[in-house]
Please model this.
Amino acid sequence: MYSEKVMDHFQNPRNVGTLPDANGVGEVGNIRCGDVMKLYIKVNENQVIEDIKFQTFGCGAAIATSSMITEIVKGMPISEAEKVSNRQVAEELDGLPPVKMHCSNLAADALKAAIEDYRQGQKA
Amino acid sequence: MRSIYLDHAATTPMRQEAYEAMIPYLTEKFGNPSSIHAFGRAARKDVDGARERVAKALNAAPQEIFFTSGGTEADNMAILGTAAQLRDKGKHIITSAVEHHAVLHTCEALATQGYRLTMLPVDKYGMVSPSQLAKAITDETILVSIMHANNEVGTIQPIRELAAIAHERGALFHTDAVQSLGNIPVDVADLQVDLLSASAHKLYGPKGVGLLYVRKGTKLGNIAYGGAQERNLRPGTENVAGIMGFARALELAAAEQPETYEHLAALRDKLIKGLTSLPAVSLNGHPQQRLPGNVNVSIERVEGESLILSLDMAGIAVSSGSACTSGSLEPSHVLMAMGLSHQKAHGSLRFTLGKSTSAADIDYVLEVIPGIIQRLRQMSPVQAGQE
Model:
């Protein structure tokens, strides 16, 4: 049911873990639905995502989309990164089963939340 | 790589004897049992012989056995057929919150058609209480349908007691015995049920065939029309090859049931002991009143589908009650009815053992699973105990 790319990211997820020096953290989903994603970003003075890590509780699609977004946006300016959509993440993984498009495809939302958290931190 | 099938509650591989019993009926013995000529008569004779053997395995009479396309159709016939037949007597039906969807969704369909439905709750082990049934039943109750053993957590219900309560109030009693047959004793006289559903492919027979036991004197309304087969109750040309395979599989399963129980229960207990000794892993279902081949655990901080995929990569086939595997956004209705937290329901894993399962298979599962759990937990932002 999953593409080879999804299975690769599930089996060998990129950028798993936490960032002690993160300056933006975003969490989406909830335990009731069975998916929780947490993204940690470190944005440098040039407004570029210098480092990114994730932690995810969820199905294969949830873990693969989390892993994929870290690959897509690492090294990207936040102004560009925030335009990445959940759909694009799914496309980069050669698609997801239809039932997973809504419940487990939240990685871009987690990134937006992390960028928002970073911006709030800059204002303070 | 090893390949270990631990999903026998989903389906079982067909045994050689059942396969061989079917072959002639797929080829040269092709007659329609309803035909008058020699081809038809030969098929009729063998279907009747199969019915006798199936009846004997259940301690029933041959005329009480109605072959169906499987457990789901048998459940539909029992519930919808009773509702149609007894609609003038009453419109109240009682079932439990942990039934298979074949029963639950059928009862829910009736609830939209003017019938009143009571869904009995279960305790934390998934057990229905006879006193709850006694409180819920009324003179309007026409049917009580409670499964013999649960497909997800393996809990065995006190059918004899429950049936006695139904009968005291003049209601019929149906049980779905799809999971129990072949694993624990199933004797319709001992269980005192009026209706019982079973399926061939759960006991090493073919898919696409099952039966409904209907106690003599119990009348059911039709749910389908178009032929006089199965004493006018289940129209359509008989699945002759399937029936022959079913009969062979069932007579063997019934004869072997005591040794099957011993074999499975020993391995089940070994697996339960190994799994529950791991940190934050707990058993779901009843510790004693449990199918011999069923192990259901919740693994905190990880999600079921991820566990299935990881175990699959290690060659181990299991299932889960997580939302991702239920095809809906909600985790298993059985685990939720037992009062599990969402986290525990999403992190549930079901291992169902079978005839071919060996101690070495269990050792292998216990060898690989700690690493899988550790890997997924390291990835998880969720705290243990989070609801």
Q: What stands out?
A: Chain B has a mean pLDDT of 96. The radius of gyration of chain B is 21 Å. Chain B touches chain A at residues 301-306, 309, 313, 322-324, 327, 329, 331, 342-343, 346, 378-382, 386-387 (CB under 8 Å). Chain B is about 40% helix and 15% strand.
